[in-house]
Amino acid sequence: LHLSNSSWAGTNMAEASTRKLQTMTMTDAFIRKIMETDPNSTPYSLDVHNKQIRHLSNLESVPKLRSLDVSFNRLQDLEGLAPLSDLRELKAYSNAIRDVFALGENCPALSTLLLQDNCVNAIPRSFRKLVHLKHFSIRNNELEALENLPPSISQLDVGGNCLTNDSVRGLNMLVELESVNISGNDLGSSLPKCFAGMSKLSELQVSDNHLDTLEYNLPSGLVSLTAHRNHLSASLSICSLPNLTELHIASNRITSLPPSLHLSVPLLDLLDVSDNRIPRVEDISSSISKLKELRELNASGNPCTPRDDNGNIYGKEAMEWWYALVAAAPQVEVLDDLVCDSEEVVEAARSFRRELEIKEGRAGNGLQSKSKARPKSARRKKVVVSTASGSPTNSPRGATGVPLVRPPQAYHGRAGVYGKLETMDDIESKFADIKGRLSRCKELTRPDGAPPTPGKSKVGVKEEEDESPQTAQKKEKKKKGQGEGGGRVEESASVPSSSASSSPRRRRLR
C-alpha cells in the first residue's frame, strides 16, 4: 500500500511538472491558441504576458509581427527574435533578463523598447544598430554606465539604476533627446555638464539624486523640471530658465524662496514647494506675488503651512495660511488642490468655522442660538386644561365653562410618552352622553327638510306616525262634526276621502 501511494504521488508530480513545462515553452500550438483566444493578439500583434515563459521560440509562424508583449514572464535573455526583423515595439519588462545582445542583431526596426524591472547591467555595442529607436525605458535595472545608445532616442528613462555624474557622459551624444528621467541614481551635489548642451531637452526628472543646487548645467529650453527628495537647502538657487512652466521641488530642505524668482522663471505656471522647511508664510508670498503667470501652487507641509493629523488642510492654522497665500497671489487658481473662489473653498471655510466653534465649546448651543427660528419644542403652544380649582385654559369654551374640544392629554415620563387609561364606567357614561346628543339632533330634523316649528319640540308628522288606529278614527269623526256645526263644510269637503280613511301604515309609507 505504501508503494502504491508513493507511485501515485510520483505520477501526479510528474504530470504537474509536465504541465508546468508546457506552459513555459512557446510551441506552434500555443501561439495558435493565443491568436484565436486573446483579443489583443492579431497577425501583427502578439500578447503573451504573464504566461510563465522561460524562452522565446517558434516565432517563425508569426513573421509579420509588429508588436510583441512578453512582460511578466521568466525570460533571462531575448534569444529567438531572429524571425521578427520587422518588429517595431517590444514590451519585455518585469522579467529576469540579463543579456540583450540579440536585440541589435535581430530587430533593427525597433522604435519602442521597454526593459524596466530586469537585471541588465550593461548596454552592448549592438544597440548602435537600432537607428530607429525613439522610446527606450530601462528603469530599475543594474546599469552602471550609459553608453552605446543610438542617437535617435527622444525619450529616455534610466531611473533607479547605479549611475553617477561621470557615468552619464554618453548622454551628450543624444542630440534628439527631449525627455529624460534619471531619478533614483547618485549624481552627487550638482547636475552633470552633459545636460547643458541638450538644446531639444524639454522635460527633466532628477529626483532622489542628492543634489544640492539647481544653479548649473540646466538647458535653457527646459519646460518641466522635477527634483523631489534631494538636498536643496537654504534659499532656492536656480539658473535662468526663461521657458520653464513647471517646477517640482517638494520634500527638500528649502527654507525660503528668493525674491528674484520671477526673473529666473518668468513663465512659471506650476510650483510645488510642499514638505520643505519654510518657517514663514511671507517667505513664500513675497516670491509668488511677482509670478504673474502662476496658476497652481502646492505649499502645504512646511512649518508655516501645516496639515492636520489626517493630512488635510482644513484646520485652523491651515486655513489661515491658505487665505494668506490666496490674498498675496490673486492670480493663483488652484492652491493645494483647492480651486480658489469655488464652492469647495466655501465649504472649506464653513468647516474651518465649525471646527473653531467646536474647539471653543460653542458648537451645540452657539449654532442654534444664531438661528432666527426657535426650536420645535419652543414653537409648539402648550394647551392648559381647566381644572376644578379654576385654573385658566387656552382651549375654546362653551356656555357652561366646559371646553368644547378637549385636547389630547399625554404624560411625558422618562421612559417615553404614554396615553392615559380610562375606566369602563367613564367610557359608558361618555357613550351615553354621545347617544343622547345624537337623539336630540334627530328630534330637530324634519323628513321634508323644513325648519322646525317655533315653540314645539316635536313635529306633527311624528305624532301621526306614533298614534294608534283608534285615535286616528276619533280625530276623523271630530273633524266631521266641527265641519257640520261651524259652517266649515267646504273645507272638510275639500279634503280627499282617501286621506281620511288611510291607515297609519300608509301614512308612514307616504
Question: Your description of this structure?
Answer:
30% of the residues lie in helices and 11% in strands. The protein is α/β, with parallel strands linked by helices. The strands form three sheets. The chain has a 14-stranded mixed β-sheet with strand order 1-2-3-4-5-6-7-8-9-11-13-14-15-16. It has a two-stranded parallel ribbon with strand order 10-12. Strands 17-18 form a two-stranded antiparallel sheet. Helix 7 packs across helix 8. The longest helix is centred in the first third of the chain and has 22 residues, at 2-23. 23% of the residues are buried.
How many helices? The count is: 15
Q: Helix proportion of residues, in percent?
A: 25-40%
**Beta-strand content:** 5-15%
The assigned structural class equals alpha/beta
Number of strands: 18
Terminal CA distance reads 112 Å
Please write out the topology.
Layout: H1 2-23, H2 28-37, E1 45-47, E2 67-69, E3 89-91, H3 101-106, E4 112-114, E5 135-137, E6 155-157, E7 179-181, E8 203-205, E9 224-226, E10 233-235, E11 246-248, E12 253-256, H4 261-264, E13 270-272, H5 282-288, E14 296-298, H6 316-328, E15 334-335, E16 338-339, H7 343-359, H8 363-369, H9 376-379, E17 410-413, E18 416-419, H10 424-443, H11 460-466, H12 469-485, H13 489-494, H14 497-501, H15 504-509
Parallel strand pairs: 1-2, 2-3, 3-4, 4-5, 5-6, 6-7, 7-8, 8-9, 9-11, 10-12, 11-13, 13-14, 14-15
Antiparallel strand pairs: 15-16, 17-18
Helix pairs in contact: 7-8
